[in-house]
Known about the structure:
With 165 residues, this protein is mostly helical. It has helices at residues 25-52, 58-70, 75-82, 86-98, 120-140, 146-164, and strands at residues 73-74, 102-107, 110-118.
Amino acid sequence: MRGAVVEKDDSGTGPGTAAGVPADQEFLALEHELAVILRRARATSGEMAREVHPELESAAYGLLVRLESAGQQRATELAAWFGVGKATMSRQLRALEDLGLVNREPDPEDGRASLVHLTEEGLARFRHVRDARRARYVRKLADWDRAEVAELARLLHQFNERAER
């Protein structure tokens, strides 16, 4: 679809409409670009997971991101954050534990629960991959003005905030 021209339909009934809402060119372009970003993000997530550890599943890479940014958490909090079931989260955490990337400790506030956190090795491996990824962004956007990079980050943040509502 790259470079494709999609004609604007102001009638609200033609192609590219949903529930009678006109599919304005700007929103079609946004949808396309987000689809490209998501496709690339999925591919990149798998690559980064393998860089952290060759046996790491791409879905589990997001757990490392969350634990690094939010700190230790209960498995139930992680499951809620990612919108997955307890069984799925338990399986992913067990795999991360087996690889030596996370550890569980009893929750001091509730002895029945445990808190999951990155191990020193897990944190070091994750940060190495994250820093390499950031260096790739710096290279790819080297010809951008820093203000443009900041504006892109601001707009993406604003979009993500609204998506959470």
